[in-house]
Specification:
It is a single chain. With 336 residues, this protein is an alpha+beta fold. The protein has one domain: Anthranilate synthase, CATH 3.60.120.10. Helices cover 31% and strands 31% of the residues. The protein contains eight helices and 18 strands. The strands form three sheets. The protein has an eight-stranded antiparallel sheet, with helices on one face. Helix 2 packs across helix 8 and helix 3 packs across helix 8. The mean pLDDT is 93.
Length: 336
């Protein structure tokens, strides 16, 4: 990376930055580059109208795995959890849609911005694979000088259009022993990794609620100050993947994912963002996302499993999460 920064400075960039995507499996190649031009814009309101052609109905939809296969994989993971071999595992599923005409990535992206204004939005070309777009609710890392923050999410509940039912769902999530346990595993592991690196570290004793258009999440914002200079990219790679997207312990959970998921995650569950030559940067988790490749669209969603998890409930949760991207494509129904 230093060589790329040096080349960029010689080309006239005063503070170059590396931008791109790091896959879920860090052993796979990352898609990182140093742009010739980089602009930081203030947050803007999402578009009030979306220009572009509608996608139309999907011609076909292939589930990997289907309902029975997903529930079977969850049951196999639950056996390992109840035997104490792992404490948490995150299993995901994929929807592959085929359209008659190639969906317009820019139109879909603007639709995501409109429907999910609170998210971290991204759109990036993946050479040979298509365009990755998404609206992630989860910040892995924001760093400026030695100050940093991270906002992991773990534990979720479906929202309701009825205010009273929605408020009850939020309260039930806060009171859920299962979801609190799942969340605590993530926070404890992040604290374990961060504490030795920090001059100060603030870890709230209990999570709060974060809401998106479709889900309530248990959320804990952690912030601190590093003892030594460590770039945002290096720190993000140390933390990634967190138990929120992988499980715990990390190595054992990754092995479970490799054995039980019938597809390669690629960039799903990875991180996307930037890091400048001064070490500042911001990285979000690649969730609520999809890849558009000509007429083919691949959408992903995962669910965190602990010993108290229920296969049918986890299937419904992934369906709700897939609804974020399906709505952006005009397919406004959950993949249940």
């Amino acid at each position: 990376m230093q060589q790329a920064f040096d080349d960029a400075r010689r080309a006239g960039l005063s503070n170059p930055a590396v931008v791109g995507v790091i896959p879920f499996d860090k052993a796979q190649p990352s898609r990182l580059f140093v742009p010739r031009h980089l602009a930081f814009l203030p947050p803007s309101a999402p578009p009030t109208a979306i220009c572009g052609l509608p996608c139309g109905a999907a011609r076909s939809c292939i589930e990997q795995p289907g309902r029975a296969g997903f529930c079977d994989a969850v049951n196999q993971a639950l056996d390992l959890l109840r035997e104490g071999r792992i404490d948490k595992a995150v299993l995901s599923r994929l929807l592959q849609l085929e359209f008659d005409e190639p969906p317009c990535a820019q139109t879909i992206f603007q639709g995501l911005r409109q429907q999910n204004p609170e998210a971290y939005h991204f759109a990036v070309d993946l050479p040979g694979e298509g365009v990755l777009i998404g609206a992630s609710p989860e910040l892995l890392l924001r760093k400026h000088r030695r100050a940093f923050s991270t906002n992991p999410l773990a534990g979720s509940a479906k929202r309701s259009l009825d205010p009273l039912t929605d408020a009850e769902a939020a309260r039930a999530l806060l009171d859920s022993a299962k979801d609190q346990h799942e969340h605590r595993l993530v926070i404890d592991d992040l604290e374990r990794q961060l504490r030795p690196l920090c001059r100060t570290l603030n870890v709230p004793p209990a999570p709060t609620l974060l809401k998106t258009a479709r889900l309530w999440h248990l959320s804990t914002r952690i912030d601190g100050e590093l003892q030594d200079e460590l770039s945002a990219l290096r720190l993000a790679c140390r933390l990634h993947p967190t138990p929120a997207l992988c499980g715990f312990p990390t190595a054992a959970a990754k092995q479970v994912i490799a054995e039980l998921e019938p597809f390669d995650r690629g960039v799903f569950g990875g991180i996307i963002g930037w890091c400048d030559a001064a070490g500042n940067g911001e990285w979000a988790v690649v969730i609520r996302c999809g890849i558009i490749q000509q007429t083919r669209v691949r959408l992903f969603a995962g669910a965190g499993l602990v010993s108290a998890s229920c296969p049918e409930a986890e299937w419904r949760e992934t369906g709700t999460k897939l609804g974020t991207m399906l709505a952006a494509f005009g397919l406004d129904k959950e993949a249940v």
